[in-house]
Specification:
Largest sheet: 5 strands, antiparallel
Structural class: alpha+beta
Order of helices and strands: HEEEHEEHHH
Strand order of the largest sheet: 1-2-3-5-4
Shape: globular
Distance between the termini: 25 Å
Number of helices: 5
Number of strands: 5
Strand content: 15-25%
Length: 158
């Protein structure tokens, strides 16, 4: 069962994105934003209305897998906190997922859509370099990953 707050924000997203709301399956909503797949679920706990957001970053690379997985663990540590994004692996297809719980208290549908767009941008950037350091960034001691997540508010907790 989904909550009315969750249902309302999904219907508002459909209105803004010109998607027929009648086509939604509210338990698991699957959307594609800028060629990146998302799944959204109701994640309300008690009186705190929230949604669970899963962003498909794609498959792990066939080379440098160990370095990529290590980088993802580093990002998980750097962004650790309540409702912060984390990386996981989809057990069904092996793809890397960015998963997070988004509290809906002060968010509107447009805010959620902007968050989806930001995560889609991160997914496309990850697919192009897997958040591995380039020589210039490594020399400065800052990871590209940290900068990307911070720029889109990905390091915010709460």
């Amino acid at each position: 069962m989904v909550t009315s707050v969750y249902r309302k924000i999904l219907e508002d997203i459909c209105t803004l994105a010109d998607i027929p709301a009648s086509s939604l399956m509210y338990q698991d909503v699957n959307l594609t934003v800028d060629r990146v797949d998302f799944t959204i679920r109701d994640a309300t706990q008690g009186e705190e209305h929230a949604l669970a957001l899963y962003c498909d970053f794609g498959p792990l690379p066939s080379t440098a897998r160990e370095q990529v997985l290590e980088r993802l663990l580093q990002v998980n540590l750097a962004t650790h906190g309540p409702n912060a994004p984390l990386f996981a692996q989809n057990p069904e297809n092996g793809h890397v997922l960015l998963a997070r719980r988004v509290v809906l208290a002060r968010l509107r549908a447009l805010d959620v859509m902007n968050l989806l767009a930001e995560h889609a941008t991160h997914a496309r950037q990850w697919r192009n370099g897997y958040y591995l350091r380039d020589d210039k960034t490594a020399a400065r001691g800052k990871s590209r990953t940290h900068l990307l997540l911070a720029s889109a508010g990905g390091l915010q907790r709460g």
